[in-house]
Amino acid sequence: MSEQSLWWERYKLERAGASEIVAGVETAVTAGLLAPGEALPPVRDLAGYLHVNPNTVAAAYRTLRDRGTVETRGRAGTRVRERPGTSTRMRSYEMPEGVRDLTSGEPEPRLLPRLRPPAAIDVSGYRYAPVEPVLEEQLRRRVSRFFTAEAGAGTDTHADIETAAESAALLAGSRMLSVFGSLDGIERLLATHTRPGDKIAVEDPAWGNMLDLAAARGLTVVPMRMNDEGPDPTDLRAALAAGVSAVVVTTRAQNPYGAIVSARRATALRTVLAAHPEVLTIDDDHGADLTPGVPRLLAGATRQWAYLYSASKAYGPDMRIAALVGAADTTDRVAGQLRHSSRRVPGVMQHLWADALADQANDAVLAEAGAVYAANRKALIGELGARGVEAHGASGLSVWIPVPDETAAATGLLARGWAVAPGSWFRVRSGPGIRVTVASMQREEMAALAEAVASTLGRHAGVRPESV
DSSP letters of 398-444? Predict the structure, then answer.
């Protein structure tokens, strides 16, 4: 206990309520006195040291967990997250020579369209238009196509087609502005609709940057468990009962789980939301250009809503631009914030994306990229399944593999020459797992990786996976 108490002694906490404990831990993390992965004292030990009720410490640890500062690892106790919201540490670890790095979550460079700088445009003077007209024209055409190109295909019912048409009409009649990528759009929406201390509902596992953003803004995340059809409606209902101000859902290519919100799940989620009309809903459709089918949205289920469509996964990570379409009041708040900060996304970037959207040759490149990613996910999931290992990846660039102990799994795979992302980068309360980015994998690698995963987990071909 002596080593763990040093940072408490430095701050000389005399009245340690739950809020003081939270502030003390986050200050220690920011100052580097508590490093990522370092254990916090057990609840009862810390309560005894501070002379407070154990329930006070437990409440503080829950707040720290919900704010993304710490995570609970079962018998391993409560530890500082790999990338806590109060730290500038990046999600990464040292790669020994010869190790195959599958941690990035980024698209394969060879499958990106080759963009050309836009023709000369007027860059003189300050402008406050929320989006360049040429970009808005291309974006509205593209978004409309998402809802109509495959409506009625496959197992879509008449009701599903009607819902897609309603979403298309809703977006067509709504306001649009450009922001600096999906995360920037989410941040600006939360900044104009929430205050520090508010609660927001997020997927679990979730996009790690989303968890970091919530922690940095002082927001408490209320997790919604995931399956292949999206977040759990029961968990959404509980989150709304807990008083969340906003709900963030990835409509397809969910990172890290790969879920696609189904028509059935969207209907269930919208039904739950209907009783809470003042809650902000955010649909993140960052994988739209790489995922076929019709997006199923929460948009319109409440008065405050926004839909985000971004360029970075399809056109390249450095394309920091996204379209934010939403209800009038929702978008007006963000537009007002932009006018008093960045003013707007630079016109050069907007014209670059507009030209890329207008070039039909890029559609073929995007279709090929989407097909390669889908084939890679299917191949790896198939190889894992043949060895008794469960995996998920209905869309997106990665595959999520539930494991009993993600630290042991990631370490074991690293020793076998494979670097994967531990689930602690993405989880709130959900079970442990690892994320494997398949975007750049070659087909001949799939069996070797699956064999390494199975060996690490102690599985054998033909043996059904345990429940984890």
Answer: EEEEE-S-HHHHHHHHHHTTEE-EEGGGT-SSSPPEEEEE-TT--HH
* pLDDT tens sequence across 154-188: 445 656 667 788 888 999 889 999 999 999 999 99
Which residues have CB under 8 Å from 179's CB, separation 6+? 185, 188, 308, 321, 322, 323, 324, 334, 338, 345
Mean pLDDT of 430-438: 95
- Would you call 6 helix, strand, or coil by DSSP? helix
Residue 332: strand, helix, or coil: helix
pLDDT digits (tens, 9 = 90+) for 115-143: 988 877 777 667 777 899 999 999 999 99
| Secondary structure class of 322 (helix, strand, coil) | strand
Assess whether the previous peptide bond of 84 is cis (omega < 30° from 0). no
| Per-residue confidence band for 411, with pLDDT thresholds at 50, 70 and 90 | confident
12 closest CA partner among 32, 29, 27? 27
CA distance 333 to 328: 9
Q: Is beta strand 322-326 parallel, antiparallel or unpaired with respect to 304-310?
A: antiparallel
The count of C-alpha atoms lying within 13 angstroms of the C-alpha of 14, restricted to the half-sphere facing its C-beta, is 0
Over 50: is that where the pLDDT of 76 sits? yes
Secondary structure (DSSP) of 106-152: PPPGGGS----PPPP----S----SS-HHHHHHHHHHHHHHHHSSTT
Which amino acid is located at 256 in the chain? P
Give yes or no for a contact between 313 and 107, defined as CB atoms under 8 angstroms apart: yes
